[in-house]
Amino acid sequence: MPDNSILDRIREQSTWYGAKARKNHLEFLSLQVIEIIMAAAIPVSSVATTTDRQKWVVAVLGALIGVIEAVLQLGQYQQNWLLYRATREALRREDFLYSAKAGPYAGYEGS
C-alpha cells in the first residue's frame, strides 16, 4: 500500500508554493503598473502648468517612482514569483510521477 503521507506532503507544499507565486506575481505587477503610470504622468504634469504646486507634483511623482523601484528590488517579487512557480511545477511533476509509479518511483510500494 502506498504511503499517502508523502503524497499529501507534496500536494501541501505544491499548494503553498502556488499561493506564494500568485501573491508575488500580483505584488510585482501592481507595483510595476503604478510605477509606469506615475512615470507617464511626469512629462504631462511638467508641461501642463508651471506653478510651484505643479513643480512639487512632478518632484513627488519622481520620488515615488524611486521608492517603488526600491521596494520592488528589496522585495524581489519577480524573482520570488518565478522561483515559487518553478518549485511548484517541480513538485507537481513529482506528484505525477509518484502517483503513476513512474521514473524514480517505478516499483515503489511505500510503507
Give me some keywords for this one.
111 residues, mainly alpha, 3 helices, 84% helix
Structural class: mainly alpha
Query: What does the average pLDDT come to?
Result: 88
Helices and strands, in order, run as HHH
Instruction: Quickly count the domains.
Output: 1
Strand tally is 0
Number of helices: 3
β-strand amount: under 5%
Oligomer: single chain
Biggest sheet statistics: none
- Distance between the terminal alpha carbons, to the nearest Å? 7 Å
Radius of gyration using CA atoms only: 23 Å
Q: In terms of per-residue confidence, which ranges show pLDDT below 50 for 5 or more consecutive residues?
A: none
Q: Which shape, going by the Cα principal axes? A: rod-shaped
Helix fraction by DSSP (H/I, runs of at least 4) = over 70%
Structural features, described:
The chain has 111 residues and is mainly alpha-helical. It has one domain (4-101). Helix content is 84%, strand content 0%. The chain contains three helices and no strands. The longest helix has 45 residues, at 4-48. It is rod-shaped.
Concise synopsis of the structure shown:
The chain is mostly helical. 84% of the residues lie in helices and 0% in strands. It has one domain (4-101).
Reconstruct the topology from this structure.
Blueprint: H1 4-48, H2 52-75, H3 77-100
